[in-house]
Amino acid sequence: MKMTFRWFGETNDSISLQHIKQIPGVEGIVWALHDVPVGEEWPLEKIQEVKQQADQSGLSIDVVESVNVHEDIKLGLNTRDQYIENYKQTIEKLASVGVKVICYNFMPVFDWFRSDLNEPLHDGSHALFYDKAKVEDINPLEIVRKNSDELDFKMPGWEPERLADLAHLFEAYQDIKEEDLWENLSYFLQEIIPVAEAHDIQMAIHPDDPPWSIFGLPRIITNAENIRRLLSIVDSSYHGITLCSGSLGANPLNHVGDMVREFADRIPFAHIRNVKVYENGSFIETSHRTEDGSVDIYDIVKAYHEAGFTGYVRPDHGRHLWDEVCRPGYGLYDRALGIMYLWGIWDSLVRSEK
Ligand SMILES: [Mn+2]
């Protein structure tokens, strides 16, 4: 496996490339142009700038996360074709600097979703928390207000113009059911995958986080059965998944290790992290260690090892430790600890083979 680390950019991250380079075994960054509005074509000069920065630190730029999909594509509007055309152009440009994997998702309106970004754990660290009852109880428009008041809800990656448009977006999704979303995803894939294939870039869809419908919005990349359906839409090794153990693992019915075993040859990119799921359906992010959460991280790494996995891996989110000031979920310390845990399991599996 090739170890990577998510980096938000020189002026957009509390962590430097030099620090990332010092984590054992990290070969590359997982990056994106976070200031390009969703749907627009990525400018080549800005792509090359990141490539240069990474080169100087001896890190690869093979994995991009994410090239986000415009809502009009997910809604299946007539305007989608222009956005799909822009997407294709971005694929072509990313290929020109050597990008190998593009992570994306197909979640309506919200990307990953939590009720609290700084929930205390028993050890005094803090982590992202999903309070199920709280989310079920709240009107999403209220979240916007709370967000702007810097209270309970903050959503990194939410552009202000998108927040302002939230009421309109919800209206637009009113008639979009799961089957409509499948149809719109299928249209997108049939357009995109041949282009990705021609440019030797693997598309890797991220599962829905959490893996169930929120606020009545449809969500479809949620379990093994739906991943099977997803992969059958286009039969190509360039159409794969970003298998995220924490997203799928928030539903105790999902056995992530078995998903690795079943889908291994369609997983170019793995997110590995743990969550502790409570009986009431709420969950909190924990350290990567199997014993600390509800997801069997050992079994997942073992499944990758058995599959001879040569794809990219990154520790997903981490807790906020030792008073670190960082982007929620994306501190240096806990993700670096997570990497060492993953290497510990991996290296011992490799040695025990010999
Ligand atoms: Mn993830």
From TrEMBL:
Pathway per the UniProt entry: Carbohydrate metabolism; pentose and glucuronate interconversion
Family annotation (InterPro entries): Man_deHydtase, Xyl_isomerase-like_sf
Keyword Iron on entry: yes
Enzyme class: lyase
Pfam families xref list: UxuA
Listed GO MF terms: mannonate dehydratase activity
Cofactor requirements of the protein: Fe(2+); Mn(2+)
EC numbers for this chain: 4.2.1.8
Keyword hit for Iron: yes
Segments traversing the membrane: none
Keywords: Iron, Lyase, Manganese
The reaction(s) this protein catalyses: D-mannonate = 2-dehydro-3-deoxy-D-gluconate + H2O
Stated role: Catalyzes the dehydration of D-mannonate.
HAMAP family reported in the protein's UniProt record: UxuA
Family classification: Belongs to the mannonate dehydratase family.
Official protein name in the record: Mannonate dehydratase
Organism: Halobacillus seohaensis
